[in-house]
Amino acid sequence: MYYTKVNQDNCIACGLCQIISPDLFDYTSEGIAFSKMDLNAGNVPIPDGRFEAFLDAYRKCPTGAILRSDRPFPPAEQRF
Ligand code: SF4
């Protein structure tokens, strides 16, 4: 079981993750990405059927802004 969120300080708003994995990633009006299922809290597990698309986005993010963990991320301040 894996969890994901976007380090929004490192996101350059390229839009790639949302194109590759629209079920998992969306972006703000400024183009900054966030994990869609949990509004970037990183506490909802990635569904099995979405994991390949997640990995593709994770590997292709040009800045490494997509984070991955095998446990829920701790609460943190988010920017929307
Ligand atoms: Fe941001 Fe990376 Fe997604 Fe591009 S692929 S929008 S840099 S998180």
Quick summary of this structure?
The protein is α+β, with helices and mostly antiparallel strands. Helix content is 19%, strand content 18%.
Question: What are the SSEs and their pairings?
Answer:
Layout: E1 3-6, H1 16-20, E2 25-27, E3 33-35, H2 51-60, E4 66-69
Antiparallel strand pairs: 1-4, 2-3
The structure holds iron/sulfur cluster (SF4).
The largest sheet is:
2 strands, antiparallel
State the share of residues found in helices, binned by percent. Answer: 10-25%
DSSP helix count? 2
Q: Encode the helix/strand succession as letters.
A: EHEEHE
* Number of E strands: 4
Cofactors, ions and other ligands in the entry? iron/sulfur cluster
| β-strand amount | 15-25%
Task: List low-pLDDT spans.
Answer: none
Shape estimate: globular
Query: Residue-averaged pLDDT, rounded?
Result: 95
Q: Would you mind describing this structure in some detail?
A:
By secondary structure, the protein is α+β, with helices and mostly antiparallel strands. The protein has two helices and four strands; from the N terminus they run E-H-E-E-H-E. Strands 1-4 form a two-stranded antiparallel ribbon. The longest helix is centred in the C-terminal third of the chain and has 10 residues, at 51-60. The chain is globular. The chain starts with a strand and ends in an 11-residue tail after the last strand. Residues 6, 11-17, 33, 61-63, 65-66 line the site of iron/sulfur cluster (SF4).
